[in-house]
Amino acid sequence: MDSVKASEPAPCAEKLLRAAPPHELVATTARLLADRVGAREVTLLVADYGLSVLQPVTHLPHTGEPVPASDGPAGRAFTTQVPVVEVTDDPVTDLVHLPITVRGDRLGVLSVRLPTGGTDPATVLQIADVATALAHEIAAAGRDTDLYLQARRTRRLTLAAEMQWQLLPGRGYARREYSLGAHLEPAYAIGGDNFDWSSDADHLTVTMTDGMGQGIDASLLTTLAVGALRNARRANIGLADQACLADQAVFAQYGGKAYASTLLLRFDLDTGIVQAVDAGSPQLFRQRGGSIERIELEAQLPLGMLEETLYEEQTFQVEPGDRLFAVSKGVHGARSEKGAPFGEQALRQTITAAAAMPPHEAARAVVSGLVEHFGSRDLAADAAVICLDWRGRPAADR
Q: Are 247 and 303 in contact, with CB atoms under 8 Å apart?
C-alpha cells in the first residue's frame, strides 16, 4: 500500500486551492510552493482601487506596507503582465514576481522568494501556473470573505463608491478577438460613473453609464440604470430595446427629475460590425494607425429624461488593429481649477502618448492625464475610461 501511495501524483494546484478556506488561500499557496519549488516566502500583493500601489495581504490588519503599482520589480510585473525576476541583497535567495490576472482583469502580483538559481524558466512557469489558479480563487473568494477587498484599500471608500465597485464587472477582460481595460477616478469617492460588459460566443456588449448628480444619489441612479440594462440584455432583447426598457425603469422611479447618460455598444465578433446607441454624454474615439477620430453618433436622450423615449441603433465598423476609447463627460468635459477645459485636443494627445501601452494602462494613462491637467486627484466630477483593442476573429474560425 505504501508503494502505491508513493507513486500517486501530487494533487494539482487548482484542487488544493479550491479545498482551502477563502481566507487561507495565501497560506495554502505558500505551503504548496514550499513543497514543490522550495519557496522560502510567498507574498500576495493586490492592486488598490486607484491602481497606485500594490498592498500585501495579511490577516490583521489585512494589509502591510505597500509598493508602487507602476514602478519597481513588482510594479513592472503588474503593468507588463510578465514575470519579473529580482536579484536581492540576500546572497542565497532571489525574488520572482508574477502577475495575478483573471481573463485580463489584473488583480495584483504574487511575489515568491526562491533559493538563488531557482528562477529557471521551468520553475517560473510552474509558479505561474499556481499564480493563475490562485487568481481564479481570489476572484471567487470575494463572495465569502472581505479579506481581499479590505486589502485593496489605502483608505476608506465612501458608501457610494462601495456600491459602484460592487456593481462593476471588473477592470479588464481579454479573449483572442479583443482585450479591454477600464479605469475610474476618484476611485475612493466615485458616485455615478460606471462601465459594464458581457460576452458570449459571437458578441461583446459594452456600456458606459453616467448617473446624474453626486454621491449616493448618483450611485443609486446608476445602479438602477445598469440593473435595468442587464435585465433587458439577459432577456435577449435588442440593443435599442435595452435602452428603451432601462429608460422606462429610470423614468418610473424618478419621473424625469434624474436621468442617466449611457453609451451602448454591441460588437459582432465575426464581422466587426458595431451596433451603437448614444443615449447621452459619453463620447467614443477610434485610433486607427496614426490617426484618431471621434465616432460621431446621433445624440439621443439620456435614460429616464422623458417618458417612453424610443431609441434607434446606428452601426459602424471596426477593423483588426483598431483601438477604441469610450470616455465619460467627467473626462471630455472636465475643467481645471482655473476653468481651462481638458478638451478634445488634450484627450487626443493623451491617447497618442498611450499608443504603445496595453488597454488597461492606456485607460489609466488617460485618467492620469486628466488628473495632471486638473492639478489634483480630487476631481470635480467622476471620470470613466474604457479602452478596447480589436483583433477580430480569423476568417477560418467564422
A: yes
C-alpha cell, 187: 476611485
Q: In what order do the strands lie in the sheet with 314-317?
A: 193-199, 203-211, 260-268, 273-279, 314-317
Q: Which residues contact 392 (CB under 8 A, 6 or more apart)?
A: 177, 269, 272, 318, 319, 320
Quick check: 386 and 172 in contact, CB under 8 A?
no
Per the DSSP assignment, residues forming a β-bridge with 386 are 182, 326
Residue closest to 369 by CA, chosen among 386, 383, 389: 383
Its sign, for the CA torsion 276, 226, 203, 295, is positive
Print pLDDT tens along the chain (398 aa): 344 344 455 678 899 999 999 999 999 999 999 999 999 999 999 999 999 999 999 977 778 899 999 999 999 999 999 999 998 888 899 999 999 999 999 999 999 999 988 899 999 999 999 999 999 999 999 999 999 999 999 999 999 999 999 999 999 999 999 999 999 999 999 999 999 999 999 999 999 999 999 999 999 999 999 999 999 999 999 999 999 999 999 999 999 999 999 999 999 999 999 999 999 989 999 999 889 999 999 999 999 999 999 999 999 999 999 999 999 988 887 776 666 677 788 889 999 999 999 999 999 999 988 888 777 666 778 999 999 999 999 877 77
Kindly give the pairing relationship between strand 273-279 and strand 260-268.
Answer: antiparallel
Asked whether 114 and 88 are in contact (CB, 8 A), the reply is: no
CA distance 101 to 105: 5
Q: What's the DSSP call for residue 180?
A: E
Cβ atoms of residues 297 and 252 within 8 Å: no
CA distance 45 to 138: 12
Q: Which three cell numbers stand for residue 234?
A: 439577459
C-alpha angle 55-56-61 in degrees, rounded to nearest 5? 95
Helix (H, G, I), strand (E, B) or coil at 105: strand
Rounded to an integer, what distance in angstroms lies between the CA atom of residue 220 and that of residue 224?
6
